[in-house]
Amino acid sequence: MMRRRDETNKTDHRTNLYHCDNLIVRRGQEFQIKITFSRAYKPNEDKFAVEFVIGADPQYSKGTYLPVFPTKTRQSSWGGRVIQTNDNVVTMGITPAANCIVGKYHMYVAVQTPFGIRRTKRDNSRDLYVLFNPWAADDAVFLDDEAERQECVMNELGVIYHGAYDDVSERNWNYGQFNYGVLDACLYIMDRSEMPITNRGDPIKVTRKASAMLNSRDDDGVLVGNWSGDYTYGVAPTSWTGSTDILLSYSGSKMPVCYAQCWVYAAVFNSFLRCLGIPSRVVTNYYSAHDNDGNLKLDIILDDNGRIDRSRTKDSIWNYHCWNECYMSRPDLPPGFGGWQVVDATPQETSDGMYRCGPASVLAIKHGHICFPFDAPFVFAEVNSDVVFYSRKNDGTMEPVRVNKSHVGRMVLTKAVGSNGRRDITDQYKFPEGSPEERTVLEKAEEFGCKQEKSSPPEADVNVVLPTLEISVGNDFEFNVEFVNQSLQKRTVQAYVSGSVVYYTGVSSNEFLFKTPTVTIPAQKSVKELMTIESRNYLAHLVEQANLNFIVTGKIKETGRIVTAMKVVTLHTPKLTVEVTGGGRVNEEMMASVQFTNPFSFNLENVHLRMEGPGVMELKSRYYSLLPGGSSLTWTEMFAPQRAGKTRVMATLDCSGLRQVSGQASITIET
Predict the structure, then answer these.
(1) Which spans in 200-345 are helix H?
(2) Which of 46, 63, 216, 541 could lock 256 by a disulfide, CB 3.0 to 4.6 Å apart?
(3) What's the CATH fold of domain 462-570?
(4) Is residue 123 annotated as part of the catalytic site, yes or no?
């Protein structure tokens, strides 16, 4: 099978990084096998074929039984030719069709004899995997940019963005798409979904099926979502460092893995796509609208005095949301809508009866063609919704009092190609706010049934400005609300200032601040309202993403207009220190040490640490039952890097008292 890592098949097909003894090739590109017969091959007399079969019931008509012939006169959909004959040894070149089924094939050699056809016995070492091929022009996933292919197919090291749009944080991730057992786990996901084998060559069907299978809602898929803060029966979403452990655990136990939130779904989906050869990347949208009723607006309801009515406000704005983009042609859409497609495995809303989303063309979303399959209106709303504040009168009627058109979809980020920096791709999803093109797009979306808020209530002549703060968990801080009067008369504002601890999905857990100052502002002046926030008020209520959400609303006495302002403050968690020492060469022993000091006065209990590095270190974990306030821990592990190149060792620390603590060290390994 010429299946060794250093032989031409694996190097030509760029599959030599997979930890797998079998031959792995990409479709639409020739590979070679050597067949040794019992005597010399005579092309004019001897007739043989190489047969490939996949699935339980192989049939020629379904493309699951594929005979490949050495002669030009007789060819099937997979091309075959004799490259070289040397006595009894025939070297044959075989080219799988560029649209063939992706998966694991068995191979046989069949020879025509006077007594009928004789076949070789079944032998596992002759099984081969056929993957998608972004390097082949005829493949639906062809991506004509070598730097993008290296990043979106071959790179195992991920950087996933979170935090807030004006205070971006990053999380390192090991996609591990070449690790031992991962390819089999990805094929198991398709088997488990009972996806017809004949659909497995179509990237549109594969990605749509996988977006349903990566969450466990309704199909016992890979990951169980949990946004509650209680992760007693599994691993906290913030604790994972890579996809390998999750995929191997699912294919080994055949049970959904606990627990995930949006970036875990996106990261594991990314490993699945890259492993099968579909170019993909993880994307983060800041201020992502989760619109329950599909109407392109998020409704925030205020009572008569301008205070938020939490029981009636149903839509939520996620501080950020992660999804995937994968690259493919879209023969099912008009020309021009191929390229990057949004797929999302986080279970938010159902699509055709299952929790899944996509593939939706990014270009179609930008231009407002939300009638195109699949799920374009939902993604369009995630980046384009308006935030509408309604005032609810005592008789139950609602009147829009303020519309914020630029809050949602503030910024869309992904990792830059070839470096660990970030790349802003907001302009691929939408035209600049307020531009004529943007208006045209929203009108077009409306033709396809997306309702928009038409009213434009008059602007208030008082502005509320909230500060941009960088604060660490456990610190007291000043929060100053500035009221700016732009009118020529004095103004009096009856204000409500609310501070609550929120999950990153925008859901409040506890209100720790509520003040109702009445502020008088002289004409064309500004007044600051000072507030001191003490850590003891919010620390007990903190949830894992450590976000504080401040909302200021109020009513101007003189004019009856409503003023509003919103701000999410992301609290910074302490960092782990990761140090790597030793050899720096392949197969030479090295040492990684993780250090952490508990910065609080209270104890941290049930502390879990995890550490891994793409291509250099398998996942290692450690448990400490208690870390007293002010004390430190040091954890060291020995490892021997398996391959050369630049990579990172990344670690996380997780316990119920403190989540989202991570650290990393960059290393270069030489041969």
Answers:
(1) 203-213, 244-253, 262-276
(2) 216
(3) Immunoglobulin-like (2.60.40)
(4) no
